[in-house]
Amino acid sequence: MAARFPFPAKVLAAIPALAFLASCVSVVPAVPPANAPAASAALNAAALGIARAPNIEFYGLLPRDSAAALDAFEASCGVVTRRQDETGLTRPEDWTLACANAPGWPRDNASRFFATYFEAVRVGDGQAFATGYFEPEILGSREWRPGFEVPVYSLPPDLVRAWPDDVPEDQRTGRPPLGRFDANGDFVDYHDRTQIEEGALAGRGLEIAWAADPVEFFFLQIQGSGRLITPEGEVIRIGYAGQNGHAYTGIGGVMRDRGLLGDGPGQYPGSMQGIMQYIRENPAEGRDLMRMNASWVFFTELGGDGPLGSIGVPVRGESSVAVDPKFVPYGAPVFLSTDRVEARGLWVAQDTGGAIRGPNRFDTFWGAGERAREIAGGMSARGNAVIFLPRGTLDRLGIN
Fold first, then answer.
1. Residue 41: predicted pLDDT
2. Among the four 43, 71, 157, 382, which has the fewest Cβ within 10 Å?
3. pLDDT grade, residue 225 (50/70/90)?
4. Is the dihedral of CA 100, 52, 11, 302 positive or negative?
């Protein structure tokens, strides 16, 4: 999906050198810096605590930024007016008035829409940490052929949720774990990345396509969606269908712990591009490093105008942001003021990710193409965040 504007309002200055990469299951495989906000032990935003922030006019919303955010918000209305909010802050009916007026609101005055129907709130201390993700474009094929030998698997039917026999009945709370039943009828872990790469799923008819480059496909799995471009020019869009139940390991964090990333002699840049460079220059070590991430993502072929976020709405480049839905309501506009100029401005919460946990943790979506890849691959921004909630929410919650 291309960016909505050729010169987005968020890009107000030349793109700086890539900063150190932060962790994200849907983005780039590293870890946050030591001063990044930590996940809170609070169950949600209401338990953590919120405070009224300055009026919407205070933030100086830019016209293009606001128009794109209004489009994204309108697309989310079918969700926010029906779905229960995990943050404990809003109710479905709170969004009705804004959603009713979004379709006909003039986009050239979109900033006034947000000032009219929203009020700003700070969750916890509001100190934000943001990374970036994008929709990769890699070489692929619908059929196996020489040079296209990396299988892209659909969700296997034997991947199920169940309780192992050794888990007592009184401890079976929440969702059961993912796994499979073996030949003896025992519930066991599902095949991990190494086992799948070595052929555990081969010959079962699960291949929906074949990728050309195992390294590029590894990073596409981390993003969770992407485009396969065939030699004939066909574009095959694939999106997240499920995961094998094994924990995600950010290999960038492993590399940093080993002293492989940094600015010193012999070190590689702390970005997705630097990590890929190391893997290509050290293929045996790189393969072992990738296999430390036992998580494997399964895909489905997509139609429509963009990759789907976790609420089933297409995410929009430079407007959609992934959040922890326990701390930011889905569909809520989010204003970021960060030390990375590209990330500053208005976003809409339409997605989440396995590493996007805790208050004020954000993952900005940048669309597809080389520019998106470059920005997302090096995005590591710190600053402040405010959430826009429907007017009247804070009074109902008793927030002065």
1. 57
2. 157
3. confident
4. negative
Sign of CA dihedral 35, 41, 43, 48: negative
Residue count of the chain: 400
Query: Are β-strands 127-135 and 381-390 bridged in parallel, bridged antiparallel, or unpaired?
Result: antiparallel
Q: How many CB atoms lie within 10 A of CB 290?
A: 21
The model's pLDDT over 7-16, given as tens digits with 9 standing for 90+, comes to 233 433 222 2
The answer to whether the CB of 43 falls within 8 A of the CB of 89 is no
CA distance 180 to 199: 16
314 SS3 class: strand
The rounded distance, in Å, linking the Cα atoms of 124 and 46 is: 9
- In the chain, the amino acid numbered 33 is P
Residue 372 has pLDDT above 70, yes or no: yes
* Backbone phi, psi, residue 84, to 5°: -75, 135
Characterise 174 by phi-psi region: left (phi > 0), alpha (psi -120 to 50), beta (else).
Answer: left
φ/ψ (deg, to 5) at 327: -125, -15
Sign of CA dihedral 16, 381, 98, 324: positive
User: Is-contact 239 307, C-beta < 8 A?
Assistant: yes
